[in-house]
User: Which sequence fits this backbone?
């Protein structure tokens, strides 16, 4: 079992099943609001009404779940902060992703976006960045590290993050949801790199929110065409750096035989 240092000070001791319970509870509330409001995922950014009912409302409901449950657990500090950082070079792919999102905002088409829509897009993007990073990375890291090493933490948290998009199959995009799941695994790896290279979940939240803001606001989301390549880069960099970290940690562990006095 892999133990996470400092977890003894938490109100409730981390367990994998607890992290999964938070994940499921969040999705249950989110998708329940979508179903009640008659979601059509392909039309989320269409108007003020669709943004309010299908973007802001479900995220606001999910936020309430996270604030209550993670506060009860007492997991906020380890969920938002990272002490075992990857090299600063790991931030290169997240930086490129941020640049692509900004370029999408510069060259996108926004003639249909009203002032109210801009406000709703900003609110929703802040919420999606906070919510999904906390539920699929921050608090899941705390839970998964109670049992798995960092490769497992990256793989399982990123897989769950990608799978939370799978129900979109039933909400308006059909089989494209499977492609979205694959792409989101890659983008989730980029958010993972943003978290672990900076030591804070905030940059990953901001990047996630910026990306969704640029995609949902523009009628011509060029960023979507670049997403698969960013995802591939994110996975490759994560695998390489985690492999190096794993080897470094294994060689740095003291050999008990060498500590025995002659």
Assistant:
């Amino acid at each position: 079992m892999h133990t996470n240092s400092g977890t003894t000070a938490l109100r409730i001791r981390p367990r994998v099943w607890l992290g999964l319970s938070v994940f499921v509870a969040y999705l249950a509330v989110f998708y329940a609001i979508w179903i009640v409001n008659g979601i059509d995922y392909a039309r989320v950014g269409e108007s003020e009404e669709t943004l309010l009912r299908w973007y802001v409302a479900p995220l606001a409901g999910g936020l309430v779940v996270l604030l209550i449950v993670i506060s009860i657990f007492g997991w906020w500090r380890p969920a938002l902060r990272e002490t075992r950082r990857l090299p600063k070079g790991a931030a290169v792919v997240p930086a490129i992703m941020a640049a692509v999102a900004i370029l999408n905002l510069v060259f996108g088409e926004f003639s249909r976006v009203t002032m109210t829509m801009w406000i709703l897009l900003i609110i929703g993007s802040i919420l999606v960045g906070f919510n999904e990073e906390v539920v699929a990375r921050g608090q899941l890291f705390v839970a998964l590290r109670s049992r798995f090493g960092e490769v497992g933490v990256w793989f399982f948290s990123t897989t769950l993050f990608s799978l939370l998009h799978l129900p979109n199959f039933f909400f308006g995009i059909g089989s494209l949801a499977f492609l979205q799941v694959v792409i989101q695994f890659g983008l989730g790896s980029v958010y993972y790199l943003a978290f672990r290279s900076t030591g804070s979940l905030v940059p990953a939240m901001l990047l996630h929110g910026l990306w969704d803001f640029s995609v949902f606001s523009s009628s011509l989301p060029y960023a979507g065409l670049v997403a698969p390549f960013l995802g591939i880069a994110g996975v490759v960099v994560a695998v390489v750096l985690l492999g190096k970290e794993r080897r470094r940690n294994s060689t740095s562990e003291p050999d008990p035989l060498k500590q025995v006095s002659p």
Observations:
- The CA atoms of residues 4 and 43 lie 42 Å apart.
- The two ends are 32 Å apart (CA to CA).
- The chain has one domain: 11-246.
- The chain has nine helices and no strands.
